[in-house]
Amino acid sequence: MPLDPKYLEILNKNTLSEKDFATLNTLAQLVRERILEVVSKNGGHLSSTLGAVELIIGMHYVFDSPNDPFIFDVSHQAYAHKLLTGRWDSFETLRQSDGISGFTRPSESVQDYFIAGHSSTSISLGVGAAKAFSLKGSNHTPVALIGDGAMSAGLVYEALNELGDRKYPMVIILNDNEMSIAEPIGAISKYLSQIIAGKFVQGIKNKIGNAINNMPNATYIVKRFEESLKLITPGILFEELGLEYIGPIDGHNLKEIINTLILAKSTKKPVVVHAQTLKGKGYTPAEGHLEQWHGVSPFDPQKKSLAKSSVESPTSIFAQTLLELADKDSSIVGITAAMPSGTGLDKLIKAYPNRFWDVAIAEQHATTQASALAKEGFKPFVAIYSTFLQRAFDQLIHDVGIMKTPVKFAIDRAGIVGEDGETHQGAFDIGYLNLIPNFTLFAPRDLATLALAVKFARDFSSGPCAFRYPRKAFLLKEEIFHSTPFEYGKLEILKECKSEILLLGYGNGVGRAYKCLLELEKQGINASLVDLRFAKPLDKNALISLAKTHKKWFIFSDSAKIGGIGQILSAFVQENTLGIQICSLEFEDAFIPHGKVEVIETKLGLDTQSLVTKITKHL
């Protein structure tokens, strides 16, 4: 049902009456209903975006978007923004192939300033925009909406450090949905902060500033009084960094939000507006600290519960195996960066809270501290999604690779992850890890070999190692081929025949290769099948031996073609003058869009029929 335009017209008014606030509150209710309606059908981020509805309505009322750019941190909480900017009807296609993105995307709307899928970038982007406005002589104001969880990343403080020094006009809305500040302190802080940041006090500060500089005793008294106020407010950190601070305010009270944002905008300074919100606001089952409602698959909103899959996932097998090993080996420790349930480490954190840690959104810190743990004789497993491990690239080189510490990286969500799109696809970990000296890279092909991969990583002590596995199910069932333990640097021949054709898979690519093998056999084409197992080091002797009888190699791996397994093997073939024709069937040089995994695979030509057609044409 289309949204009545009268609800949007009010966002352009200059004044608000009590009746108008009632209209805005009705708009907030309609937005929530639309979000719940679509997310329950398509899946997506739910609790975080429900909690930000009033804040986003307030932003659109007070500021002139897109001239005042709205910069959403992560942007999975920006569904209300999409609904208020001409995408009410197209919201039906949320996260679907060729539909609108689950994150902000400039190519989708001029109202989306930047694409954002990883956290903690908004303030840095805001500083850049503020610098540009200053150089242009523009009076526009960047507005950043950032969640409290994103404040744990170092990039935030790098940006705040400069912003507090240069004083560019900017409004930072801190969406605090963890209710981490106790009520008494929050009430006092709310009152004092509004007074301290108000026009009257700010005016007095400016007028008497020069006078009190000539009165030492008065200066001392004034400064001590102001410092004593800061000590009982949660804004002391921001104040000390040189930013104005207002809050906490009620992040669901539109009147309070709008009045506060008008005040913050008028200061022409960098201001932090601290708003307390409730995750999942408006849909009772999702309200509060319930991580399972953060990102959801399609569900029945009337049942008010999420369906549980009965199929064991790679993540669950990793966690189960690591827990079994940790029960017997106290030197095993583990780290994740704000993804305890997503990586399965929540079970280990619960069982061994002193040995397994969630270090918040701090992949760099997770990587570096793991290296020190390894140096001290522990066996650290760092469980992070492929796309997020990218954030720790320097630490992988400087703190792990050079030191050659035996850190074990469990890379979840490798390959195509689906509806989250470009920023989340796990396409690059092979490429960026392979170029780092001292790293060992390997991959399981199914659930059984994933358990063996965890055990191999536990025992490997010659340097850092990394193994990757997909988000959902492996393409290959574990009962198809007998599982044997990993042997350092050794591949495994799964099927060998008298043919010049070799299908060579890595990780989940083995399952893709096996499906192609079955289809080729139906066409009377025989081929051998190999599980590479190790991307680094390669099994040189076995590959040279295979090259004597198999002159056409087809490479399967859920990875970008550039820097992927095909290029690794091409370099090997060239160095050893093997005279092999190599055809890589990995991802082409483009960011992978959002949509259901099966749909995206078909669009990329990675479905079995398309791959077989490519192989036969190549032959």
Describe the structure.
About 4% of the residues have low confidence. This protein has 619 residues and is an alpha/beta fold. The longest helix has 25 residues. It contains 25 helices and 19 strands. Helix content is 42%, strand content 14%. The strands form 4 sheets. It has a 7-stranded mixed beta sheet with strand order 9-8-10-11-13-12-17, sandwiched between helices. The chain has a 5-stranded parallel beta sheet with strand order 2-3-4-6-5, with helices on both faces.
SSE blueprint:
Blueprint: H1 6-9, H2 18-42, E1 44-45, H3 47-50, H4 53-62, E2 70-72, H5 79-83, H6 122-136, E3 143-147, H7 154-166, E4 170-176, H8 183-197, H9 199-212, H10 216-230, H11 236-240, E5 244-250, H12 254-266, E6 270-276, E7 295-296, H13 314-328, E8 332-336, H14 340-343, H15 345-351, E9 356-358, H16 363-375, E10 379-385, H17 386-389, H18 393-401, E11 408-412, H19 429-434, E12 440-442, H20 447-459, E13 465-468, E14 492-495, E15 501-506, H21 509-522, E16 528-531, E17 534-536, H22 540-549, E18 552-557, H23 565-575, E19 581-584, H24 597-603, H25 608-618
Parallel strand pairs: 2-3, 3-4, 4-6, 5-6, 8-9, 8-10, 10-11, 11-13, 12-13, 15-16, 15-18, 18-19
Antiparallel strand pairs: 1-7, 12-17, 14-16
